[in-house]
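Title: [Solved] Mitogen-activated protein kinase kinase kinase 7 3D structure

Original question kept below for reference.
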Amino acid sequence: MEQFRQIGEVIGSLKVLMVFQDEIRINQRQCCLLVDAFDLAFDVIKEEIHKNLCFSERLTKWKALDQPLKELQRIFREGEHFIRQCLETKDWWGKAVLMNQSTECVDFHLHNLLWCIPVILEAIECAAEISGSRQEDVQKKKIVFSKKYERDWMEPMIFQFEYGKQYLVSPEMCHRMETAWREDRWILSEMISDKKYSGISKQENRLGELLLAPRGKFFPTSLLLNSKDYQFRRRLGTGGKYKEIQWMGESFVVKHLIGEIDPIAQEVSLQSSVTHPNVMHIMYAFADEEKKESFLLMELMHRDLSGYIREVSSSKRRIPFPLLIAVDIMLQIARGMEHLHLRKIYHGELNPSNVFVRTRNSSHDIGYLQAKITGFGVSAMNQTPSDTCIWYAPEVLEEQERSADSTAFKYSEKADVYSFGMICFELLTGKVPFEDSHLQGGKMSRNIKAGERPLFPSPSPKYLTNLVKKCWQAEPSQRPNFTSICRVLRYIKRFLLMNPDHSQLESLMPNVDYFELEMSLSKKYASWARKEPLQVSEIPFQMFAYRILEREKNSMNIIKDKSSESGSEDASLCGDETARNLCTLDDSLSGSVTSSKSSLGSSDTPKSSQVSTDRNKNSSTKKVNRKDRKETGQRQKVKPVRPLQTTRMNSRRNLQPSVVPSPRRTSGNSADTELP
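Solution (posted by the thread starter after getting help):
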């Protein structure tokens, strides 16, 4: 309840700020969209809490809401910071240079909000299932929630029609998400035209041209270096190429390059066109053809991920990040790579040194980082990273051994996925892959090609180690793409919020394999194998579809477990006649479960029944079974089937309302667990 009250405080603060919305001179449409989305989200949550929960039980039965609401509060605080930045009137030109190209409103803040809302609603449903004193009311709630997660709603258009407003993806909101950025660009151009008409200085006129120019265009270096408020702050990294500067009241990074302009012009144009919250892009380019030097202006980031991990990890090999934050960083990197791959841009040098990070802006984001991918295209020129073989896929190493040119293999989708898997290993363990190995250079490369991979410490969360192992499969075709990885990571992040005990040494384990859900749903929805960038408005439906399939698989797993337990108890008491019936019942159950399992894309093996053990121990019983089956024929095949079907239907009715099953617990060395 305290978290919800604090969220209300953020809403109140935003409403006060929006009294002056006409004075927002940067990204006004996006700010209004973000405030409206936050306001609508608060109203939806308020209504669901009022409808399903009891205030008097807030200290005893609302525990499922604690972590999801805390996450939502963090998302609201970050959005508030963005709006305050846009509202700030000091140094308008600098603010416009920094923020006018940003897609942060939709691709970062609304992305996080639309991912979090399904988690909040699910948490409310969990609390509602144990809330209230009347068992009749509780049962009604369970029935209502079970009806919500039926397959009838597993179509995007039907989902939007029925639940669009509740999940913030009504047609109106979707339209605003698509148009807000373009409208702000138009407003900016009109504002600059008005300034020119009323009279501005020569420098301001050139800045206006800079803001409205096509991306990738080079401007004279004098516009940057001769500005009165240009200040050099410090050099960044090694080699002296990167410098932190202050220009027009804002901090930036410039990359200083020496050489002809033409060879880098195409790459500058490409990197200028890539705008995503998790990709470093070139905002503006400045060049002096006589001096043969150029300056590429970029957003300031604090350091690379490799250096950050070394700093936060102590000599005792402390894990660098809490699990939730590690998954958040993994998702950001995957989203950045997804954006690049959908534009047919392949990295080739993906490693922690090419992921820049900085702390989040909000004081409530302790430990949270924003990650941006760099090092592709022109940024990769003259790179000489150390220990490169540990980040390269086996097929890249093989091609390097055969030929000096490994471009075809190095710059590929699946090679980047392999490198991503290695980054995830370092995020989860704090260790550089293979750092404990005594092998180096050619020997290390040979072992990687032979199938050697880093070992996860024990205990490690299997649902994450399995994901990483899928990414570094030896066969490239068996590695997932980044679009699938993003969907799975979103759902894993949801699992961590719904199960806050994940920090315990004995790792919690979901009852289903999320990659199995992903494979099943990718076959059902052709659009999921996309060739176009993701619209954030699609995220709630994706989460919803995952939830429906997860509930079905959980119900089937429980039915299998209960049926196996029932079979074991009956087998211990059966005589010859009972044994015959149970043997036939066991055969029917196995067939039924296998059929249901296949329809859901599951690969789980049903648990063995004690009946099978008893049959093996008693050979005389087996002979009687064979004989009686021949004599009775159709009667023995049909008779047990009816009770079985009734049992399954009753079990499904009783079990279907369960919203969040108790996670399995696993222990042992996850490195020893191989993927199927």
